[in-house]
TrEMBL record:
This is NodB homology domain-containing protein. Residues 65-249 form the NodB homology domain. One of its GO terms (biological process) is carbohydrate metabolic process. One of its GO terms (molecular function) is hydrolase activity, acting on carbon-nitrogen (but not peptide) bonds. Keywords: Signal. SUPFAM superfamilies: Glycoside hydrolase/deacetylase (SSF88713). GO terms for cellular component: extracellular region.
Amino acid sequence: MILLYHHLLPEDDDAGFSAEDGLTFRHSPEAFRFHLEELQRRGYRFGSLDQLVRQLDDGITEDDRSAFVTFDDGWRNQHEYALPILRALGISATFFVTTDHLRQGVSCAKRMGPAELRALVDAGMTIGSHTRTHPDLARLDETRLEDELRGSRQDLEDLLGKPVTLFAYPGGSLSARVVRAVRHAGYEAACCSFGPARNDATSLFWMYRDVISASMRSPRDRYRLSPLARQLLTFRVERRLRASLHRRA
């Protein structure tokens, strides 16, 4: 199971954010820590997304009791609140970040800058690309699409001095054309926002992810945390994926 997070913010702390910043997708630091500790208590084993990609590439299906942590968008609050918790629990995570402000050398109070990204890498975390400007990729022409995909990867590699091989689709927007462009841009795997479903070699470029509520007790949570339910209802996720892959701009 690949967990998907966005904002980590204390309750009632949303100063400086707007509706466009996706505060609907937020957890408190306490809820995040609860998730990780509760999953460990239930017997889940945390690993790195790089490890999962290698496993899937070798033809080994994702294990029912494996868990992987991912964050989208590169918000500064992820560095502030998630990193200390991850380090304390000995868990690695992958952070998919946008790069337009990095490329332009513009400091952004909301998003992580070079110092925060390097600190994540130094702590054993993985940085992946989330495009330069977070557009709807399925609506872009070929030139802009390549700039967002290949350009953001180059931005991060120039900054970090190491290969960037993982990608996440902004807003979960993808199509068959976009998937081909992601492959062509040199990425080894990509995450979507569909789930729950078990990942295998066929899903390397739309790896399924899950969003869990703060309490982990909702009907959706029980569905996502049940291996049997995930297996029986995979067809629903695959149907949504097929609709996106056949999407036309």
